[in-house]
Design goal:
The chain is α/β, with parallel strands linked by helices. It contains 11 helices and 18 strands. It has 2 domains: about 180 residues, Quinone Oxidoreductase, Chain A, domain 1 (Alpha-Beta Complex); about 140 residues, Rossmann fold (3-Layer(aba) Sandwich). Strands 3, 5, 6, 9, 10, 17 and 18 form a 7-stranded mixed beta sheet that branches. A 6-stranded parallel beta sheet has the order 13-12-11-14-15-16, with helices on both faces. Helix 4 packs parallel to helix 5.
């Protein structure tokens, strides 16, 4: 079938929106009519080839929609079901068996290779194969193919389905970093560096679990104001003041008990570690390009018992965590809608510019 899709063709260049051909689903695959697709920083990383992804590539990995067709072996969903699409895993390696699918041994190959595990792709353009299967979906399109492995059925019909795509990556990453990974106890302090959609999801989650001091750090006052509206108790504009000194002042000299680097820059990670008090834990969430090194003082880390943990996809088991986030949203406890601005699919480059300016937190692309 012919579809409209967003294509990354050249690094640092605008996305293309073109007509492409979507093939038939295989036995374990589904065709999804996309109703909304979140724009994530990782889509821009793929566009700019900061990770070694193939071009031209149909991007999009925060899709939600309605099942349009199913392969012969699919049993999880039926035509007409509402779904959120998330990252894809093998389901057979040790981390997958241990309930840690975000650390699947084949995670990179399955999500960034531009094709299925056998190298094929369901997409073509002008009779030539087009790289797809980005995060098992390539959902910046009006239709896409996903596998039964990376779809989560939405059973609550009261929530707007077009808002839910970001739960598949950015939102579950930020919220999960707090709820699943750090697990801060009620009354604890947390500093979150970076108030994009991932960081703001972390702020909402920190409020949800009862952190008493939620310290938001960013360089844009507009983002910090948004953080306050979502639960931050303190804000720091790190372009105006040293965030480490400010965090120590806020915490009466003790330092934060928990911190999160949602940015993925060495200087931010160093600050997120240094701002911790004794026995504090820093979670690294922001995705830096391959080959980037960070440094920190080893003795300081050792003698204060500080810990650093890498966090991928919020340590989420999507089949469990995404439905819980949906129910929290429906109950008014996790206001996902406050992050969102909608754009038409064909306005993808306008959406990118708005996000990069800081005018928009989470853009969601709506197919015509």
């Amino acid at each position: 079938m012919k579809i409209q899709a967003v294509i990354a063709a050249n690094p640092k260049s605008p996305f293309l929106v073109e007509e492409v051909e979507l093939g038939e689903p295989r036995a374990n695959e589904v065709v999804v009519r996309v109703v909304g697709a979140g724009l994530c920083h990782t889509d821009l990383v793929a566009r700019d080839k900061e990770y070694p992804v193939p071009h031209p590539l149909v991007v999009g990995h925060e899709g939600s929609g309605i099942i349009h067709a199913v392969g012969d072996a699919v049993t999880k969903v039926a035509v007409g079901d509402a779904v959120v699409m998330t990252f894809v895993t093998c389901g057979n390696c040790d981390p997958c068996h241990a309930g840690k699918p975000a650390y699947c041994k084949s995670l990179y190959d399955l999500n960034f290779s531009g094709g299925r595990p056998d190298g094929s792709t369901p997409l073509s353009r002008d009779g030539k194969d087009l790289c797809g299967c980005f995060f098992g979906q390539s959902s910046m399109a009006d239709y896409c193919i996903a596998s039964e492995n990376n779809i989560v059925k939405v059973t609550n019909s009261s929530v707007p389905l077009e808002l839910l795509g970001p739960l598949g990556c950015g939102v579950q990453t930020g919220a999960g970093a707090v709820i699943n990974s750090l697990q801060p106890p009620a009354g604890s302090s947390i500093a979150i560096f970076g108030m994009g959609s991932v960081g703001l999801s972390g702020v909402m989650a920190a409020k949800l679990v009862g952190c008493s001091k939620i310290i938001a750090v960013d360089i844009l006052d507009s983002r910090l104001e948004k953080a306050v509206s979502l639960g931050a108790t303190h804000t720091i504009n790190s372009s105006d003041k040293d965030p480490v000194e400010a965090i120590r002042e806020i915490t009466d000299g003790k330092g934060a008990e928990f911190s999160l680097d949602m940015v993925g820059r060495p200087e931010v990670l160093r600050a997120a570690i240094t701002c911790l008090g004794s026995l504090g834990t820093c979670g690294l969430v922001g995705a830096a390009p391959f080959g980037v090194d960070a440094s920190f003082e080893m003795a300081d880390l050792l003698f204060h018992g500080r810990r650093i943990m890498g966090i991928c996809e919020g340590d989420s088991v999507p089949e469990i965590f995404i439905p819980r986030l949906i129910e929290l949203y429906a109950a008014g406890l996790f206001p996902l809608d406050k992050l969102v601005t909608k754009f038409k699919l064909e306005d993808i480059n306008e959406a990118v510019e708005a996000v990069e300016r800081g005018d928009v937190v989470k853009a969601i692309l709506i197919p015509s």
